[in-house]
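[stage:ingest] chain + small molecule (zinc ion)
[stage:ingest] validated
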Amino acid sequence: MKGINRLFGLLLLALPLAAQAGLPASSSVPGGVAVIPLGGDAKKDPAPEAWFGKHRVLVAPDHGEWYAVVGVPLDTKPGEQQLQVSTGGASRSLPFDVGPKAYPEQHITLKSKRKVDLSPRDLKRALKEIAQIKALKLHWRDAPRTDLDFIEPVDGQMGSAFGLRRFFNGEARSPHSGIDLVVPSDTPVKAAGKGQVLAVGDYFFNGKTVFVDHGDGLITMYCHLSHIEVKPGEKVGKGQEIARSGMTGRATGPHLHWSVVLNGAMVDPALFLPGQKYARQ
Ligand code: ZN
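[stage:predict] done
[stage:export] tokens:
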């Protein structure tokens, strides 16, 4: 028994900071999640409020202390950043460092020009949808105990990783804002965590999509679905089937595109999975 405890202790030591139960792994880089201790006694003191730029940030207790769990946007310049923290009416600025991260590049040739050079009609539709999606990503719902411990929505092979810098027919596009899990069409897609369906839609680029709001600015997106099985406002449990995978929208083959949004920033979903499966250091 003693040996097992010792082994367990060693395993805990081997885990990165903040693989402490419940919180995602801290990775303070563009597209990562910075887990910042805020102090205070989480058993007695009310949760501090925190903002990164204009965006309210998720604050969660862990081992009796408060932490800010900050989504770092992909376009953040490495260097010192400031978190604004408000505790019982007193505000302070808390500096934290964002390190550099070089994501790989991928060059893709698409045969269908329609998906690269949009017609005025498609462009109008896509721009309207981008604005709608942007607003959904900024949604905030207070949740006393946000579920930060995710499961994989499908058990698939990793296709494109998060942050991949893509070029379609030689033109730079926005970096990959989620992970692609390659599964056959009509594979059941499960909610990564407990939450509430924020919206469903059928978009030019993302295809049929479900947004699940986990509370406190944490939102997951499931794209290119063949079939959606939930409605906005519906509560979903972790692991509940919400849709079937497919290749609707702009997809070169059947897969699930899964994104995690935190305080409006697209962050690496792999950071929320046990053992950081799929995470690339
Ligand atoms: Zn994708």
